[in-house]
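Section 5.1 Outputs to date
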Amino acid sequence: MSTSVAPLEMVDTDRYPLTAPGSPAWLATVGRTRADLADAGCSVLTDFIRPELREVLRTECAGLEPHAYTKIEQVNAYNTAIGAPLPEGHPGRTIMERGNAFVARDHIPASSIISRLYTSPLFQRFVADCFGLPELHELADPLSGLTLNVIAPGRAHPWHFDTNSYTVSLLTQGAAEGGTFEHCPNIRSAAEENFAAVRSVLAGDGAYPVQRLALRPGDLQLFQGRFALHRVSTVKGGIARHSAIFAYSERPGTVGSAERTRQLFGRVLPAHLAGRTDRGDELLD
């Protein structure tokens, strides 16, 4: 699963100067990304991966697909237990079908390109700077810090929020049709769930705006997924959609809940049962 290509050699450093921290080009790129995040809670760095190396990345990630945990499940936007008591009209009572699958971090070799990129200090510094933070931490979660999201034809990743505050994704294989990323930036905050707006989006009544992105293989996306309701629409055609998910947190020690981990990976590890789920807020998962 390893290649001879170093992680930052995959990056078009002429456009995205990860090897020159603090340079004018670095500051200009960071400035543009911060402006996007402030405006829309999301920024797309198009053609982040060099064109001549995208097939290397695609092949490597496609080889991980057999390790994806696949189970069609009934979920809500908060990934809390179905059937748990909730007030009438609570958006968590809206049940959706989740058909996407995840390759967990412990199935992704440390030698792989996406693993080396995720753990690269220069990449982490660049991402933190783009988010306007002094530093970011890899998730302490042994399964969900780095994953490959696999959405097979006919399936979708329904509306949800992220456990982690700061998410970075890299599209490695696009769908033939469909598979559009849709999101509602800052629909909630650390202090306010805004259930009425979430309920509106889940109902599809058009009262709350939904933004859509047409991502291409090699595009890097920076996203504030903890506060944005988001989904990937149904994939169509004969090609699965693959995206590497690099999950970071402003605080060390972030671990997913046992319930959510069982849903995503079909198993839990001791870390998920130890109660170490520091997120820095009291929002539903």
